[in-house]
Amino acid sequence: MYSAFLIQGLAAHLSAKRSALERLDRYRLRLRKAKEDLHHKEDKRRVVADALEKANAENKSLIGENKSLRTDLEVANKRAAKRECQLTAAEEKIKSLGPPNGNANLLRLRKLLPKLWRQRRSPPSKPATLFGWLSMSSGHGALGDDGMAFDFSEWMQDVAGSVVEVAGAYGDFCARSGGKDGVKTRLREHLERIAEAEAAAAADAGEDPKSSAAAAGREGEGNEAQDHPKV
């Protein structure tokens, strides 16, 4: 009788222990699954954080590039405005120095000014100075109100002074916009040499060759009259 109760108690204890172990295994499985889910979520969070950090870095870089491009655009617009003002002032100066009835020649000179700025790119067969362009154009001068062809040599000295002023202003502009830029420095020196050459050419062209030839002819006639006096 005592042994039967002992066996029943032992069986109940074993059954309870088995059920407890089963519940413990289920808890362990749940805990393991929860840990795996937590690790998976942590990995996803890290990936999202890295992507967000990269996006923020790219956004900052794009903002910096945008500011730099905007600054460069503003500087370029200011330089273009200053250059336009200088060219307009040069045209007004040339208009003020031109003759009253030389509108056609002024239009031709306005067309020749861009060729002067691009003079370093022009082929060697073309005239390399403003004096050369004006000399070519002087043979096709427009007629004034009196029917006489306009001669550029009459106001070449004034135009040379204007070219000197334009070259100096453009050189100062290049120096202010970028003193370390070698191309602008060479262009400024080239324009200064052109201005000096134009001034020298204008000074040389101040004497009219026709008057010199006429004076030489009259002198020759006087000498001939002295060699062969009338009897």
Automatic annotation (TrEMBL):
It comes from Oryza nivara (Indian wild rice). This is Uncharacterized protein. Keywords: Coiled coil. Residues 198-231 are annotated as: Disordered. Residues 218-231 have a biased composition (Basic and acidic residues). Residues 17-93 form a coiled coil.
